[in-house]
Design a protein that fits this description.
Number of helices: 1
Distance between the termini: 28 Å
Helix content: 10-25%
CATH topology: Thrombin, subunit H
Strand order of the largest sheet: 2-3-4-7-6-5
Amino acid sequence: MIKEKRKYPREGIYFLVTCKEPSAKEQIVSSVNISEGGLLLRSKQGLKPGSVIELCINFLNHPNKHICVNAEVVWAKKFKGFYKTGVKFVDMNPEDKNTIAEFIKYLSAK
């Protein structure tokens, strides 16, 4: 039996995320899944592992609420013409962390 290494459970969800790398143009990427610790993203352009990016997220359960958080690119792999990228949230304030936790709770109840 394989033991789960993740600290936080993930919820599969598709939504658009605005991504800004330092010294790079802003791009729109999509989520594959989300947890309280990070996101799995899908994009046309690769992101550099180790870099810190800014992500702006709009929430389905709060249509008028969005947050912008920093995330570290943990890994990135090319996959069938696009990139899958795992990021972990860094330096999140408690209010943003709570917003993400509420969103995940909303998703898991569906």
